[in-house]
């Protein structure tokens, strides 16, 4: 499996990630195929779905945005993610991409820490508590201070998640993808949001380590679908600014 050492010498594990734009008919067919094939993520609850909300950060040069636009092979972006518009579970995540594969590292945040980061206030690194910060959080704080990393765009969507342990397979269907510039209202339910996709369009994501079981691949028939390099952050920020009639800030 492909890996890359981070600054602490630890090996990063990269995964395959395939994305496909689908319509409502595809979604319905795929949902029932998967439902009878592999289990739903237990975190999805009784309804079999949950809402994801992420606020993405970028530096003073909008490097993450333009690296995505230019298709830079090796890049990373930072986000803070919550579920069902609740502060019960808050995580800072760094998603890295290299040679078409992805790696996600994360660190838990308190509500107070999250509020500070959303306001553009780096957590102090010269305290005893800071020595216990996960490396991904330390590196993010350095970027906040050195490159002006700040909250830029909120992306929100409804996710239907399926999981299969062999191969660490995760298949998700993301619906109602929207974005918002109102980053200060990250924990509010009624922030102003704009659609990222055309009506009826949804996103299928297939993620796995080295092994993708043949019986799942055959039932998905993903060879008939058109693969895309869809980036929720890039498109969300691009379309939100277009709706708002402004330039990247």
Structure description:
By secondary structure, the protein is of the alpha+beta class. The protein has one domain (19-244): mRNA Triphosphatase Cet1, Chain A. It is built from six helices and twelve strands. The protein has helices at 24-35, 63-70, 111-118, 135-147, 214-220, 232-244; strands at residues 3-5, 11-13, 15-22, 50-58, 75-83, 86-98, 101-108, 150-164, 169-180, 194-195, 202-208, 227-228. An eight-stranded antiparallel barrel has the order 3-7-6-5-4-8-9-11, surrounded by five helices. It has a two-stranded antiparallel ribbon with strand order 1-2. Strand 8 and strand 9 form a beta hairpin. The longest helix has 13 residues, at 135-147.
Topology of helices and strands:
Layout: E1 3-5, E2 11-13, E3 15-22, H1 24-35, E4 50-58, H2 63-70, E5 75-83, E6 86-98, E7 101-108, H3 111-118, H4 135-147, E8 150-164, E9 169-180, E10 194-195, E11 202-208, H5 214-220, E12 227-228, H6 232-244
Antiparallel strand pairs: 1-2, 3-7, 3-11, 3-12, 4-5, 4-8, 5-6, 6-7, 8-9, 9-10, 9-11
Strand order of the largest sheet: 3-7-6-5-4-8-9-11
- List the domain count as a whole number: 1
Helix and strand string, N-terminal first? EEEHEHEEEHHEEEEHEH
Radius of gyration: 18 Å
The overall strand count is 12
Shape: globular
């Amino acid at each position: 499996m492909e890996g890359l050492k981070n600054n602490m010498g630890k090996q990063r594990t990269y995964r395959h990630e395939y994305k496909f734009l689908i319509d409502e008919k595809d979604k319905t067919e795929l949902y029932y195929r998967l439902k009878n094939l592999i289990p739903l993520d237990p975190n999805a609850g009784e309804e079999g779905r949950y809402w994801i909300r992420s606020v993405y950060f970028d530096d003073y040069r909008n490097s993450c945005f333009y690296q995505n636009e230019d298709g830079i092979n090796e890049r990373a972006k930072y986000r803070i993610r919550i579920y069902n518009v609740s502060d019960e579970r808050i995580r800072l995540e760094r998603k890295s991409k290299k040679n078409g594969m992805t790696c996600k590292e994360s660190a838990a945040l308190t509500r107070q820490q999250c509020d500070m980061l959303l306001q553009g206030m780096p957590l102090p690194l010269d305290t005893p508590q800071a020595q216990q910060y996960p490396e991904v959080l330390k590196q993010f704080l350095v970027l906040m201070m050195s490159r002006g990393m700040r909250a830029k765009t909120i992306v929100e969507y409804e996710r239907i998640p399926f999981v299969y342990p062999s191969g660490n397979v995760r298949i998700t269907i993301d619906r109602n993808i929207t974005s918002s510039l109102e980053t200060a209202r990250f924990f509010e339910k009624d922030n102003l949001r704009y659609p990222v996709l055309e009506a009826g369009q949804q996103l299928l994501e297939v993620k796995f380590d080295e092994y993708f079981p043949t019986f799942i691949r055959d039932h998905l028939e993903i060879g008939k679908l058109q693969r895309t390099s869809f980036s929720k952050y890039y498109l969300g920020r691009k379309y939100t600014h277009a709706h708002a009639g402004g330039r990247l800030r």
